[in-house]
């Protein structure tokens, strides 16, 4: 059976029509320039970059991150960052990435400010984004995370994702300088 590729214009139309996306306690929305200070606080907080395999973000990178604008899904690897808002305050963000247009695959990633972790916000936001990815036509949705990131693994498992791969010492983490072991968890709706 032939599987049609994800159509970029339809992906963008579906995402635009869904935002802002409201859950019981949260609003998922585009990031905007006035989010800069909040994003800087939680993204560059001590220990946060450990899980993203990146060094602290520069001021210019943070400004680009929060510049706003419409999602663009033109090719494999294109991603859009959504702000996670609770009671009017930005508490984190969530990435929705097209990993393969041709194979209809997407990836979710999330980060929350340390002071709101453990309250179920990551699961609630990721569940809404997973439902959106499915509406966008994803055949398979993954979470790619560090094996030691137990909290994010629990979020992925709560979404119904199961472990598909474990890659030992597959990347050097720029935040720590150490080799890390990656996990791929996935759900096929």
UniProtKB/TrEMBL annotation:
Q: Which residues form the N-acetyltransferase domain?
A: 26-188
Residues making up the signal peptide according to the UniProt record? none
Gene3D superfamilies (UniProt xref):
3.40.630.30
Q: Which top-rank group of organisms is this from?
A: Bacteria
PANTHER family according to UniProt: GNAT FAMILY, PUTATIVE (AFU_ORTHOLOGUE AFUA_3G00765)-RELATED-RELATED (PTHR43792), N-ACETYLTRANSFERASE DOMAIN-CONTAINING PROTEIN (PTHR43792:SF1)
Q: Record's Pfam families?
A: Acetyltransf_3
Query: Which InterPro entries does the record cross-reference, listed alphabetically?
Result: Acyl_CoA_acyltransferase (IPR016181), GNAT_dom (IPR000182), N-acetyltransferase (IPR051531)
Which named protein is this?
N-acetyltransferase domain-containing protein
Q: State the organism named in the record.
A: Agrococcus terreus
